[in-house]
Design brief:
The chain is of the alpha/beta class and 158 residues long. It contains three helices and seven strands; from the N terminus they run βαβαβββββα.
Length: 158
């Protein structure tokens, strides 16, 4: 699935649409350069889950936990070297009782599950003031079904 997202509010809406389909055992990988809108999408997911608190990028803290229903574990690997992943205790969060969202998964991809929803956010012409192109791919049957539902959900506006 690929979408042109013209405004921040549209990125929030996409996150809310995705949240409506999440059950709590999903893994989502977010890719895109700094400032592309990854954390904005996470804000939309959390808003869609009913979380009313502040949502920030975990760039410096490595992980933020949000007490939504289901809980969200938001990781950012940007400042990690590949070997640092062993110290995070990722196995306690991946595909467990919550939604695990990882920004910059390519830094630790060899240590991460292959089955996931992969969302890539691209700037148009490298311009932060323009729309974004969001591409979503699925690996694994659970995630393919989720992507199909999301595609239907976004097309119908439900």
């Amino acid at each position: 699935m690929q979408r042109c997202i013209p405004r921040e509010a549209d990125m929030i809406r996409l996150g809310m649409s995705l949240a409506a389909l999440l059950k709590g055992d999903e893994i989502i990988y977010l890719q895109g350069e700094l400032g592309a809108g990854k954390t904005t999408l996470v804000r939309g997911i959390l808003k869609g889950l009913g979380y009313a608190g502040r949502v920030t990028s975990p760039t410096f803290t490595l992980m933020n936990m949000y007490s939504s229903q289901p809980p969200v574990y938001h990781f950012d690997f940007y400042r990690l070297a590949g070997g640092d992943l062993d110290d995070l205790g990722l196995e306690d969060y991946l595909g467990k009782d919550g939604i695990t969202i990882i920004e910059w998964p390519e830094i630790g991809l060899q240590d991460l599950p292959q089955e996931a929803l992969v969302i890539n956010i691209d700037l148009v012409d490298g311009d932060y003031e323009r729309e974004r192109i969001v591409s979503i791919k699925a690996s694994g049957s659970h995630y393919r079904e989720l992507l199909e539902e999301l595609t239907d959900h976004v097309h119908t506006g439900d």
